[in-house]
Amino acid sequence: MQLELKDLYDGFRDAKTIKAYKKIIEEDAKKLNRTINIMEVCGGHTHTIMKYGIPQLLPSNIKFIHGPGCPVCIMPKERIDHAYILSMQDDVILVTLGDMIKVPGSNGSLQDARSKGADVRFVYSPMDCLKIAKENPTKKIIFFAIGFETTTPMTAALLDIVIKQEIKNIFFHINHVTVPEVMRELIDSRDEHVDSYNHNIDAFLGPSHVSVISGSKIYEEFPKNYKKPVVVAGFEPVDVMQAISMIVKQFCEDRCELEIEYKRLVTYEGNIKAQELINKYFQKVCLFKWRGLGNIKDSGLKLKAEYSKYDAEVIYKEILPIEEIEDHKLCICSDILRGMASPTDCTIFGTACKPNKPVGSCMVSSEGACAAYYKYGNLLK
Amino acid sequence: MKTVTLAHGNGGAENQELISKVFYKAFKNEILTKSEDAAVIEDGNLAFTTDSFTVSPLFFNGADIGKLSICGTCNDLAMMGAKPKYLTCSVIIEEGFEIKSLEKIVKSMKNELEINGAIIVSGDTKVVPKGSVDKIFINTTGIGQILQKGISSNLISSEDIIIVSRDIGCHGATIFAAREGMDMNSDLKSDCASLYPQIKALIEAGIKITALRDATRGGVSAVLNEWANQSDICIEVQEDKIPISDEVKGICELLGFEPMSLANEGTFVMAIKKEEALKALEVLQKFENSNNACIIGEVTQQYPKKVVLNSAWGTKRFLELPTGELLPRIC
Ligand code: SF4
Ligand code: SF4
Hints:
Chain A contains 15 helices and eleven strands. By secondary structure, chain A is of the alpha/beta class. Chain B: One of its GO terms (biological process) is protein maturation.
């Protein structure tokens, strides 16, 4: 990795710029005679919003509601159990990304598996699997792949290398999910029992890293078919403030559009090469279960049938359970992920449920809404 | 708490829970519960402390486990205003360990002892079968003579302001970069250093220090939280005043860490009366490894027992104790 580390944040935390956007938003918000609820889809944004205290800068009629968060947060227990079981096989090294090892399944988390002797490793890049596979020729390396559109190309690229170099001991358990499907679900979903899943979403903040790969085009349907503006935004405080000002402007000017705030890297088309690689190896699964949200149509990916000899779900079919598992009764993640409730509405927030002992998905990943409120939120108005 | 996890060694919330629920519960006494860097004994004349060192990799940019094992214990003594004098040294070595590496480690220890003017007066060596320890563990225990009495984390008041001795997080970031095999385009280097020379200079300049602590595991965040708690005060930190190098900021961005929670091995936090602050900075800035010492915050009563971070754009948030297995085992 060769990079100028400064490039990662420089300029995007400038106090003057942030204050200038605060003024613009305040002025524009006065022209509105209503409250606007902006949903950030990704936990990365939730984290930025809470860490930098953005709600403290906004007028009272501009509100955030937090969305599904992240591929870590929304991983259902069933899938975590798969990872747990696989990791417990004698000849297996289970490899996954960071926070994933903390998520509790029904037998415990991968961290627990590790303390019981399983070989669980976390990596920053799927490519690290190549080194692990080389150093452990007698072991089966199973990459438990997670992530939105952002990380999918990396998994595909790893598979590409595995095939081309005829590496025999790397396998995949695929849990990649896609963003537009869950956004649609949030708008469309109804709960017949409570009759209350009439969403509150007025506009979306789209995660920039997803669109670097998929382009902004994946959000086109939301302004067009659902009348919800979308602004694709970066993760720095300046990015978020600018994106909010763009959304407020749209409402003031009675526009409803898809806009890109994060022009540094996002284009309408996205990274075509990466998209081709994904399409080569992956296909949609018809139903993928999201923790807290249930089964969502076409929202997950799996390996195409012709690559099934690399698919751990196929190879270990016999030992991987398929029954559905209920989430904790007191946990209201499902309402939070839908933007219907705030973490502080949960009766066990900060007491029985804390980041080091998470009960539900939103407290697990450091970027889940409950975790962000726990860590940064207690000074909020 | 059923089993000990790596999180229990993080210097943060779980670590404190383990200490208070298991060790303090059994060993409780007046000296121990003061919870200072070193115990103050013999009518306030001597400081006494111990620490064990386990680090991976053993050699890293800026230091090695040998240097660390002397700095760590001597710094704990210095943080009570004491001059490090006598140390013991026990090592547990895994069979198969190279003598050459051992010699290198011991040489670093010698160098660092000289800087502190301290000597090793007793020791112990154990060799254990392969796999029983990770290469080498070193324990050092030290006694120092207190030069300035009354330095304590329990006595900070609204008359004090908070100084940090240099840019933070270098040690933690270096270890991460080394462990993750990151090939950084940078001069990232551990801050590992003996702090006694600076403390001696402060005391000789006649400066009265309220509290001192080196920000090791748990980082500056842990120190400030402990102080706020022990002295029942609110510490308000100006976020843009905290010195952090570009390299450390970058690594934190990359890995999602907070620089304030990263470990340091040669950085201390000081609480001192407002009127003495400038004089203290003048003394510190003469030293190479504290030439960017600066004031980062003040003591108020706004939210007792809490640390508040004020951003440059006018927002506030609490800075909590680090939790979870965020930081890998460092020392
Ligand atoms: S871990 Fe964080 S960045 Fe990654 S998907 Fe989850 S919320 Fe988003
Ligand atoms: S606080 Fe915990 S239990 Fe409650 S909604 Fe959040 S994650 Fe679920």
